[in-house]
Amino acid sequence: MKKVLIGFYSLVLIGIIVCISNSNIFVKRDIQAIAAGEKVYRQNCLTCHGTNGKGEGKQAGNALNNQNFLNSVSNQNLYAYIKFGREGTAMPAYQSRLSEKEMKGLVSFIRNWQTEDIEFEVPKTISGNQVNGQKLYNLYCQTCHKEAGAGMLQMGTALSHPQYLEYTTDKQIWIATAYGREETRMGPSLKGLEGVRQLKIQDISDIVSYIRSLEEKK
After folding, report:
1. Residue 197 near residue 140, CB atoms below 8 Å
2. Which of 21, 27, 29, 128 sits most deeply, having the most CB atoms within 10 A of its CB?
3. What is the C-alpha separation between 165 and 155, in angstroms, rounded?
4. Total-model pTM
5. How many CB atoms lie within 10 A of CB 189?
6. What is the C-alpha end-to-end distance of the chain, expressed in Å?
7. Which is nearest to 86 in space by CA: 172, 150, 21?
8. Looking at residue 218, what is its pLDDT?
């Protein structure tokens, strides 16, 4: 009996170790890169994105320290956002201001804010009706993101911005629309979640299709 119990506990322990090793949260952190990235962040990003990355800076800045956001973007996405910025907005391109090492350190620092491992339920194929998507967008999204996704300072991201559309996938737009960003004005829209908008899965795909169509009109 004792041997059976020892074997059982050994299997449980192995299972726990495997789960931890496979978790994105517990990936070994590069402490030096994070520390270097924090220094770069404080020198270049704090004014807009805030001390805690919650978008609480004196200038307009998105909430980067946001679990829904961090679970929907890759390190490559973050790197592109930093390197190329958003032309014509308060978010400059840092490719001529920071070295590759500094930008990668900044990515490590931002990624270190991720404390949860969230799996979003997203349709395998995101395809919708642009006409209905525009109708829904005008009804639910235009107040903050303005007509045709032009965006509004301190209110909503410029969804029609060429660099936003280039470096953001349909899946990421779908997640942002459906699940929102916790602790921000961007609440969830998917039916069944605690949001004012209770949209069906296809409704959200229609909105994404409309937003993607704005790329063609630029």
Report:
1. yes
2. 128
3. 18
4. 0.80
5. 23
6. 72
7. 150
8. 55
